[in-house]
């Protein structure tokens, strides 16, 4: 195993430019899981980000919250302001693994690992987060909602680090995040939904329902248009337009679709007059 150990983000970007096959390692909670089985991984070069203190803190600006490229779930859980302004971040963070994983796992790692079942990604997407990608020659900014181009494919070049995640600050009239797993904690998501409503409109984001975490435009427009919904089944046509769940060892596609409709219906009834 070869390890590069940069002291600064500039050094890290220079090292990545020289060795674009190097794999950035943050908390290692995704990368190390398959370590005993994937012997080829042992020969790879890793870029250990642990000394990049400049990527650790959370920053608050007048109009945005900025998570660093090494901000962990626990950093957000313990930030009271984040809990108040962006409660879904804390809610999702508390449901990622257990405390050990929350203390090591990072939001950037969750984004780049690109699991369709990622729990950090849907809440960031529902808050219109932007991914800041830094390379030796400058930075790019990509809205998280258009970051993924396919299963485990994304708009990040191998020589770029996620240096920050920018989350706009705005008042929200409605916010919800639900994770359905096989048990209350330490479970991989079978169905996840994050919903927000602000002056920017409705955002409905699904995880474990498609090859990537994704926004649901048909459901968002149903909410924008105040369309009458009298049962969970009324949501199913829009769900079918937005996502394509698969049958796998965790659930059937039918189960996922049914649960998503119920979670949304009972979550929104009482807030939306059009949900009766
Ligand atoms: C027991 C256990 C339980 C878990 N439970 C959950 C759960 O409930 N929900 C959930 O969503 N996830 C869960 N995970 C997965 C994992 O903890 C999260 O995805 C976590 O956010 C990954 O962050 P990390 O910093 O550990 O990433 P790493 O493992 O260090 O890296 C993951 C990927 O991101 C890349 N990367 C990391 N940081 C950067 C960066 N700054 N720039 C560019 N690329 C980067 C790496 O190269 C790698 O491809 C669990 C994992 C374990 C082991």
Describe what you observe in this structure:
The chain is of the alpha+beta class and 276 residues long. The chain has helices spanning 9-18, 73-77, 80-85, 87-93, 99-104, 107-113, 120-126, 217-224, 236-242, 253-268; strands at residues 2-4, 23-25, 45-48, 59-60, 64-68, 130-135, 138-143, 148-150, 153-154, 161-168, 172-180, 191-198, 201-207, 214-215. 29% of the residues lie in helices and 25% in strands. α8 (217-224) packs across α9. The N and C termini lie far apart (59 Å). The model has no long low-confidence stretch (mean pLDDT 96). The site of flavin-adenine dinucleotide has 28 residues, from β2, α5, α6 and β10.
Structure summarized in a few sentences:
The chain is α+β, with helices and mostly antiparallel strands and 276 residues long. The protein contains 10 helices and 14 strands.
User: Which outline best applies?
Assistant: globular
Ions, cofactors, ligands: which are bound? flavin-adenine dinucleotide
- Beta-strand fraction estimate: 15-25%
CA distance, first residue to last residue: 59 Å
The side-by-side strand order for the widest beta sheet comes to 4-5-10-6-7
- SSE succession: EHEEEEHHHHHHEEEEEEEEEHHH
Query: Radius of gyration, rounded?
Result: 19 Å
Count of β-strands: 14
Largest sheet descriptor: 5 strands, antiparallel
**What average pLDDT do the residues reach?**
96
Low-confidence stretches: none
The tally of helices reads 10
Q: What is the structural class?
A: alpha+beta
Q: How helix-rich are the residues, as a percent range?
A: 25-40%
